[in-house]
Structure formats: C-alpha cells, structure tokens
Amino acid sequence: MRDITADDLEALATGAWILGTGGGGNPYMGLLNMRELYRDGRRCRLMAPDELDDGDAVAVVSAMGAPLVGRERLKDPRPIVRSVEIMQAATGVRFRALMSLEVGGGNAFQPFLAAALMDLPVVDADCMGRAFPEGQMTSFAVGGLSNAPMAMADIRDNEVVFLRAESWTRMERMARRVCVEWGSTAATCLAPRTGREVKDWGIPGTTTRAIALGRAVAAARAAHTDPVAAIVEAEGGRRLFVAKVRDVARRTTEGFLRGTATLEGLDADRGRTMTIDFQNEFAVAWADGEAVAMTPDLICVIDSVDGEAVGTEMLRYGQRVSVVVLPAPPVFLSPDGLALVGPRAFGHDLDFRSAFEASADAGD
C-alpha cells in the first residue's frame, strides 16, 4: 500500500482522460475536488489487489450519466460516499476498500473522492481497463459474477437500491432510466466484490498505468518532444490518423452522448477522411469507408500539440488531432468479452478485427 501524492493525481487526470477513449467524464472536475481535499489535509492510499484477503469486501463505484451533463455540473464527493453507505446499510457488508468501475476519464477519480472522506484505501484495479458506456460492459460480467445489488444516489437526496435483476443488461437499463430521471447524472455503488473476485476478474494495475501514462505525456511536454508519440510508446499503440475536426453531429439521448465525428486528414493523411462513431466513448473508426479500428481496442482522439485527450463532448470544428489506437484488455477478446463490448454491442454489424492484427498483416 502506498500514499497517493498530489503529483500522482495530476498525472492520473491526464492518463485517465486518454484511457477514457472520449468518455468516462472529464477528470478535471474530479481533480479540482481532490486538490481541495488535499489542501484540507485529506490523503488517499493505493493498494494492490493481492493485498486484499479473499473475504474482504470491495465497493465498486462510479458516476453514471452523459458526458455533457458532467461537464456542466461541479463534482461533489458526497453522493459517491452516500452510495457506498446505502450499500452497506442494505447488505450489512463493511467495505475494506474502494475500487473504480472504470479507470477511463473522470470515473478514475470517483473512488479517490470517496476514499478521501471515508479513510479507506483504493484498489489498483478496475473492471474495464478503459471506459465503456454501459454497466454490463465489465470483466466481472465476462466472469459471470453477480450483478446485484446496486445502489444509486444524487445531489438532491434521491436514493435507490436495486436488489435483483435478471441480467447485467437489465440492471443497466433500469439504472439508466433512474439516471435520466435525475438529470442524466448519478453516483453508483455496484454489487460488492470479494477480494477473491477482484483478484480473479478485476483488471489489475490500471490506476498505476494511468498515472504512468500521464507522467509520460508530462515528460514529453517538458522536453518539447511529441506527446502523441510518447502515448504510443508508453502503451504499445498506433497512431492511425492526423487530422483536423471537420464536423461533429451529437445528441444526448437515453442518458448517453451519441454521434459521429468527421475528420479531414492532414500531413501524410491529407486528402483522406475519417469518421468515428461514438456512444459516450469512441466505438468504430472508419478511414475512407473502411473500418480501421473498433471496440474493444481503445480509440483515442488526442490534441496533436499538447497530448491532451479530447472527449466526445469537447470535439470542435478546426481542432488539430491525432487518432491513436491502444490494445484492448485481453479479457474482452474472448467470445464472451466480445459479445459484451465488441462492435455489435454498439449496433455495428462488424466482426471484431484488432487494429494491431491489421498492422501485423501490413508489416507495420
């Protein structure tokens, strides 16, 4: 177990935003809250999954909602704490630690916001290895673990506990309806996980990974080298496309931000066009009509100058960006994993083909 420093939090914001693949919520608001909590003397600790006893209970927390709403509303750590308290009251479980649902985007900060107030450690793991838009898109669901109970809270003192659901997808749909009713934003505590389940089915080391990625970008900025190249090197990724944003069509519906970004190629990609479909996160990238990257590989749109990730809610005409693809967590490459997070789960009639397979075929 180690202390998380203020510098770690700064790096986490950069790295988690990249791993958010356009979604997960902008980490900036969570970072502002953590700066304030640290100024007040609060501190957080990070523990490896192997430090958990098999019978320990872990609270898996997240913020649910549409990215545009999250950008307009300051984060408050109290609802996420309240969702954990509701879960403890409903189940009688006393939590040993907290853990993020997804390391991507602002949800990387949710366990730290609660931990700073509850004096609990945060487990260095999540169950997505990135950000996904729906609650069933997890390594725990791939493992067939329980989807219930689930607790939700908001800033207006509304609280809900779902005791049972017929499936992970049904739980997501019921919770999403409540979230929409609350203004497309809610704090959630998912089904308690045991230490054994976290070790067997969690994706370990993801917070450390995000911090290291953020530090790599900061080092490139300080050295005045290419931060996008630093991301590719740190993550074993590929730079697919260099472009400017030509058009964005998006809408907030059913608690999601959905749409398409159209990019006009620059430099070596001049004369080419890329379109990227998204549902909170980027799902499929098409270059001149050919699908060149798709979920669960991570499609990241990065500011070409400073290496900062660009969220789906922040895309604007004229932005100079690089499209980078990073490898998917292996757990999602199984048939069960692809059924949950592959392109068909997002409405695209495509068989998953990794951008790294395409790279190998081309000798790149």
Name its key features.
single chain; 364 residues; alpha+beta; CV3147-like fold; CV3147-like; seven-stranded antiparallel beta sheet; six-stranded mixed beta sheet; disordered C terminus
Overview of the structural elements:
The protein has 364 residues and is an alpha+beta fold. It folds into two domains: 2-206, 3-Layer(aba) Sandwich (CV3147-like fold); 225-361, CV3147-like, CATH 2.40.390. The protein is 34% helix and 27% strand. The chain has helices at residues 6-19, 28-39, 67-72, 77-91, 110-118, 139-142, 168-181, 195-201, 206-223, 227-235, 335-341, 355-361; strands spanning 2-4, 44-47, 57-65, 97-100, 122-123, 125-126, 150-153, 159-162, 185-189, 193-194, 203-204, 238-253, 256-265, 273-279, 281-287, 290-294, 298-303, 320-326. Strands 16-15-14-13-12-18-17 form a seven-stranded antiparallel beta sheet. Strands 3, 4, 7, 8, 9 and 10 form a six-stranded mixed beta sheet that branches. A hairpin with a 2-residue loop joins strand 12 (238-253) and strand 13 (256-265). The protein is globular and about 60 Å long. 54% of the residues are buried. Mean pLDDT is 94; it is low at 360-364.
